[in-house]
Amino acid sequence: MKLATWCCLSSAVLAAYSCLVAANNDTEEIKDQTAKDACPVRLESRGKCEQGGECPYQVNLPPLTIQLPKQFGRMEEVFKEVQNLKEIVSSLKKCCQDSKLQADDNRDPGTGDPGEEDDNRVTELESEVNKLSSDLKNAKKEIDVLQGRLEKLNLVNMNNVENYVDSKVANLTFVVNSLDGKCSKCPSQEQIQSRPVQHLIYKDCSEYYTIGKRSSETYRVTPDPKNSSFEVYCDMETMGGGWTVLQARLDGSTNFNKTWQDYKAGFGNIRKEFWLGNDKIHLLTKSNEMILRIDLEDFNGVKLYALYDEFYVANEFLKYRLHVGNYNGTAGDALRFSKHYNHDMKFFTTPDRDNDRYPSGNCGHFYSSGWWFDACLSANLNGKYYHQKYRGVRNGIFWGTWPGMSEAQPGGYKSSFKKAKMMIRPKHFKP
Ligand SMILES: *[C@@H]1O[C@H](CO)[C@@H](O)[C@H](O)[C@H]1NC(C)=O
Ligand SMILES: *[C@@H]1O[C@H](CO)[C@@H](O)[C@H](O)[C@H]1NC(C)=O
Ligand SMILES: *[C@@H]1O[C@H](CO)[C@@H](O)[C@H](O)[C@H]1NC(C)=O
Ligand SMILES: *[C@@H]1O[C@H](CO)[C@@H](O)[C@H](O)[C@H]1NC(C)=O
Ligand SMILES: *[C@@H]1O[C@H](CO)[C@@H](O)[C@H](O)[C@H]1NC(C)=O
Ligand SMILES: [Ca+2]
């Protein structure tokens, strides 16, 4: 008889079955729930809270429809069958034992039974039970597989889905834009402009460059389709063009001694002197791998540049932390000057918000500007605009690796810059 194994198996399956119906052991609760199916989500108290702080609340979520294999549909049926069979078998067994006691004397082991009809019935049932038990085994396997799938579903969190959709949208936009760029070489410019077809979004200046825009001016960009679009100034000339300008200084017309809120939103005139805004800079750098180019010009007409192969600004929650890496260029790596003066991985600080590494004061207040201050600086392109050399606190536009910058000048004078500009472009952009 395989009764013992069968018993074991059936209780195991039963356990798995009730587990899937509800994580709760209380079967009354399950019936209760199906009766009042009207409210999709319910929270119920199940008694008093324990001292440990855990309260026996139960949340009932709306029903979830899952396609189960057909074996699963048969589970209940099979289970009932098995119950019936179990009863039959145990009564037969009892009956058998009774007759066995009587037949024991005139029977040799290994020969045919006297009660042959009953025995056939039992073998038949036994094979039936065996078949059912293997069915149940299969069903249990299916359940395990489903359970595994459910667990995997849990792991797919919303963030992953969002990133996936984002990257797909980015891909589509890129493909459409580049097709657009090829197309503009064929029909005349007027035909293109009169076309009713709206462009998809342009993430930054490099995508305007790709569709054939070659003049440096303002364009509307949408770095993240879920967020707003805004105007930027595009430099279509420097080093192949396609640059989105983040900051510019050229005549001192804009005051950079501003608050956190001002730096967040941006200020100034994007055709002249301005700060694009930390939220916008974050959006522009999060959707694409960007490189940063800094152009500087002093009052002697010396023009040098710094190129960083990596540039990223985090969101406001992370205090717009800066990441720059892989310097190249002629102006020197002032953003990562030394171990003690390093702007990489520093938070943004403004005169009214101290996130710097200077313990006894606010660098933003001291140097009257917003910047990724360390304790305090080896570079600051948002310093005060001086039209000539100046004395006192070094709160002007500053780049610590500039030729002759660190040498003391007669009379304690400090030199300043005539022009400064920060701009970004996707790392993989090919002009
Ligand atoms: C389910 O209830 C039974 C009897 O009420 C109990 O022995 C068993 O420990 C319970 N199982 C769980 C997982 O709570
Ligand atoms: C966009 O997706 C296609 C197909 O999946 C792929 O071949 C192509 O390289 C992707 N392009 C970009 C820019 O990711
Ligand atoms: C910067 O702004 C603050 C607050 O408006 C002001 O107190 C401070 O004097 C300003 N600093 C400079 C150098 O203009
Ligand atoms: C993008 O959206 C966030 C959250 O909705 C908002 O705080 C932020 O200012 C937006 N950025 C821009 C540039 O509009
Ligand atoms: C950095 O400079 C070197 C030497 O001039 C050059 O070969 C390399 O291509 C530059 N890298 C970038 C990213 O411009
Ligand atoms: Ca400080």
From TrEMBL:
Q: Domain of life here?
A: Eukaryota
UniProt keywords, alphabetically: Coiled coil, Disulfide bond, Glycoprotein, Secreted, Signal
Main location as per UniProt: secreted
Compositionally biased spans, kind Basic and acidic residues: 100-110
Q: What positions belong to coiled-coil segments? A: 122-156
* Residues of the Fibrinogen C-terminal domain: 196-428
Q: Which InterPro entries match?
A: FIB_ANG-like, Fibrinogen-like_C, Fibrinogen_a/b/g_C_1, Fibrinogen_a/b/g_C_dom, Fibrinogen_CS
Q: A single Gene Ontology molecular function, please?
A: protein-macromolecule adaptor activity
How is this protein annotated for GO cellular component? fibrinogen complex
Q: Which residues form the signal peptide?
A: 1-23
Residues of the region (Disordered) are 100-122
Q: Which CDD domains does the record match to this protein?
A: FReD
Q: What is its subcellular localisation?
A: Secreted
Could you give a single Gene Ontology term from the biological process aspect? fibrinolysis
SMART domains cross-referenced by the UniProt entry: FBG (SM00186)
| Complexes and interactors | Homotetramer; disulfide-linked.
Query: NCBIfam families this protein is in?
Result: GGGWT_bact
Q: Identify this protein by name.
A: Fibroleukin
According to its UniProt entry, this protein's organism is: Myotis lucifugus
Task: Give the lineage.
Answer: Eukaryota, Metazoa, Chordata, Craniata, Vertebrata
